[in-house]
């Protein structure tokens, strides 16, 4: 079964074609700057183990339809392609950011599903409309091929009300659907599944803390394969300190800034999303730059690193309390997978929680690997995330188990 995974952003379209019999990637790529004067398409195919990358297009890509046409051309053309015709694709899996409370699993897309996704647009105004464009373009160009929506929020739908409700007047939940939804769900689900497999344990009896540290950062407390709590909230602004996002702050700060500086809510929203986090403290948001600065003696870069690690450590403590017993802490995404210094800072002095890092193992590089000391009660793992593969797996499941509803 061949699955085409689509992640449509407002001006971009990421894709991956996988052969799900072997779970191997056949081709992957990205169309960027859709709607701008000059667009760009980067395409890679994997004939064997060797990948060739090509930047193949350098003129305007006017809209997502044109972008999808280019991608179809690339994956079917003799010199760049991996299939003879698009009909070889058995299903298309779409990343959809916000599924609200309607979707707790991936689902074949029909008119009713699209309506429900559209109804969630106010909860994810930057993402859901773009995801819908991707869906509609695929429906038009892949006539009759099933399209499946895979939601960033669905893994977190198992959270109990005590974890997802905010202590606001209850009517704000009922009328405006204000609650914790959580994000990065496909990543947490993927690494949680892999962790249980790699530890040779049944997912139903494994308790995990999954730590996704990339440009966006989030954590999840996972009991027996089910998410019990997560650090992002109604939006992806909450929780950990991130590249440019503040994470948790005292909510009264917003009114204080508005009053002191005469800023409007939009400007404050921008401030919290784009000018805060690591960037707000030390002026850089890329972790590699921050380490380079800290190594040169930049005190604010050092401060940013300490704040970043401290916030993760605090959430680990909180999630140990949520779960009662923790079998493993799993690090993933750009920073979680690659940054041994941050991992060591996070795990420092956590002996009291049964968490002890092996410094040498922590410094190793490569794929999925344990990094805990022999006497650590809690296992520590680095597991590379693979959101596309999780979307493709969920697409296969949806196609083989669900029927369209409308
Ligand atoms: P992601 O959003 O998962 O692509 O992660 C992006 C973040 O990972 C950026 O802050 C990068 O600086 C960081 N990152 C990527 N590679 C490394 C590395 N080798 N060491 C430290 N941070 C890294």
Question: Could you describe the 3D structure shown?
Answer:
- The structure is a single chain.
- With 406 residues, this protein is α/β, with parallel strands linked by helices.
- The protein has 2 domains: 2-151, ATPase, nucleotide binding domain (Nucleotidyltransferase, domain 5, 2-Layer Sandwich); 185-387, Nucleotidyltransferase, domain 5, CATH 3.30.420.
- It has helices spanning 64-76, 111-119, 128-141, 161-164, 171-176, 185-198, 252-261, 265-274, 277-282, 287-295, 299-323, 333-338, 340-347, 359-363, 387-401; strands spanning 2-8, 13-19, 24-32, 40-45, 52-57, 91-96, 107-108, 147-151, 207-213, 217-223, 226-230, 328-332, 369-370, 379-382.
- An 8-stranded mixed beta sheet has the order 5-4-3-2-1-6-8-7, with helices on both faces.
- A hairpin with a 4-residue loop joins strand 2 and strand 3.
- It is globular, with a radius of gyration of 22 Å.
- The mean pLDDT is 95.
- Bound molecules: adenosine monophosphate (AMP).
- The site of adenosine monophosphate (AMP) has 11 residues, from helix 10 and helix 12.
């Amino acid at each position: 079964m061949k699955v085409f995974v689509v992640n449509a952003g407002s001006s971009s379209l990421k894709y991956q074609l996988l052969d799900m019999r072997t779970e191997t990637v056949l081709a992957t790529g990205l169309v960027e700057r859709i709607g701008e004067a000059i667009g760009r398409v980067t395409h890679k195919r994997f004939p064997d183990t060797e990948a060739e990358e090509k930047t193949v297009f350098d003129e305007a890509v006017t809209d997502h339809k044109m972008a999808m046409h280019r991608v179809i051309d690339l994956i079917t053309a003799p010199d760049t392609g991996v299939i003879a015709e698009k009909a070889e694709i058995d299903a298309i899996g779409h990343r959809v950011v916000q599924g609200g409370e309607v979707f707790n699993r991936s689902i074949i897309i029909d008119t009713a599903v699209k309506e429900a996704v559209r109804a969630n647009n106010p909860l994810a105004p930057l993402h859901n409309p773009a995801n819908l464009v991707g869906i509609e373009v695929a429906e038009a160009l892949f006539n009759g091929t099933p399209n499946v929506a895979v939601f960033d929020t669905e893994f977190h739908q198992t959270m109990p009300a005590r974890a997802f409700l905010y202590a606001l007047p209850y009517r704000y939940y009922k009328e405006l659907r204000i609650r914790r939804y959580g994000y990065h769900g496909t990543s947490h689900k993927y690494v949680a599944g892999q962790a249980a497999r790699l530890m040779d344990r049944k997912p139903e009896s494994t308790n995990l803390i999954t730590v996704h540290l990339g440009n966006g950062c989030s954590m999840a407390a996972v009991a027996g394969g089910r998410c019990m709590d997560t650090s992002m909230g109604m939006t992806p602004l909450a929780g950990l300190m991130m590249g440019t996002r503040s994470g948790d702050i005292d909510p009264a700060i917003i009114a204080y800034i508005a009053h002191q500086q005469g800023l409007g809510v939009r400007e404050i929203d921008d401030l919290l999303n784009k000018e805060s986090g690591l960037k707000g403290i030390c002026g850089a948001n890329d972790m590699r730059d921050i380490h380079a600065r800290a190594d040169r003696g930049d005190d604010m870069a050092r401060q940013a690193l300490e704040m970043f690690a401290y916030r993760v450590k605090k959430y680990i403590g909180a999630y140990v309390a949520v779960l009662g017993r923790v079998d493993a802490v799993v690090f993933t995404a750009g920073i979680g997978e690659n940054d041994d210094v941050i991992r060591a800072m996070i795990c420092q002095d956590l002996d009291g929680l049964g968490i002890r890092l092996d410094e040498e193992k922590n410094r190793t590089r490569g794929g999925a690997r344990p990094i805990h000391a022999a006497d650590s009660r809690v296992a520590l793992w680095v597991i590379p995330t693979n959101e596309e593969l999780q979307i493709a797996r969920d697409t296969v499941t949806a196609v083989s188990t669900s029927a369209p509803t409308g």
